[in-house]
Hints:
Strand content: 15-25%
Amino acid sequence: MTVTEEQADWFAQTFAALADNVERAVLGKRHVVELAFTAMISEGHLLLEDVPGTGKTSLARALAQTVKGTSTRIQFTPDLLPGDVTGITVFDQSQGTFEFHAGPVFANVVLADEINRASPKTQSALLEVMEEGAVTVDGVTRPAGSPFMVVATQNPIEQAGTYALPEAQLDRFMMRTSLGYPDHGATLRILDAGRPPRVTVPALVELQTIAAMTELSAQVHSSPLVLDYIARLVDATRGATQVRLGASMRGAMALARGSRTWALGHGRTYVTPDDVKDLAEPVLAHRLILDPEAEFDGVTATAVIGQVLLDTPPPSQKDLA
């Protein structure tokens, strides 16, 4: 089934309206907001990594408010237990039966605030639900929500009392991005408006709209040459001298899936190499494990992805025509 130009126009207009709505809460970060909705529509999860006070929680909350679905917030702390995330089974003495009390993970958008402050055991409570969209407690599997998205935040600077996310969990995040500080113009707008610390944005679309956008974006045409380009990029991360472990197959699939949504969000019914380039860093960089000597020399995963993009030639427009 081919996406029509009319469908592409509707998708792009809705995508822009969603981003406009969230920008009421997070000023001057259009690119990051578009990445967030790309992850949501592509059925992926988002990791926001930045210093304090840049609006990570505000962005996550605004995403949840924009989509008319259920949303929950989990404040990850060292004493948080897996059952506090997934829920627990409690014995009801009056009925003589066990009753399941659902945890906060049963929602459409789950904000996992400061996720790296919880122990690895508690972090692992999210592994199944992030991959399968369901939770198994006491041998019973229950769906979490549809659509389902985890938006996690962490502070990469303050490491005291934190636990680094394991590679298996990092790989389950479709994208990692950061907001950074607002530019001078956005800072003046924030100061002039005297904005309160918590801004509520109106609900803009129904969950059915997000589901329809997800289904439509999966039908965007991706040329075999573009898919070959993605495969070569992923292979190049595995062969880079500074990298101990390159991007996974899950990362390659996420890049292909996200590129379709990104293309449709910008009004195109087909994926271009530029769409792949736009998403390569947020989709692949957090999946790389660098060689310790390279890290000591100041090499970053972002720099490695940048070099891979330079060294891997994309298909030409002539070949794609």
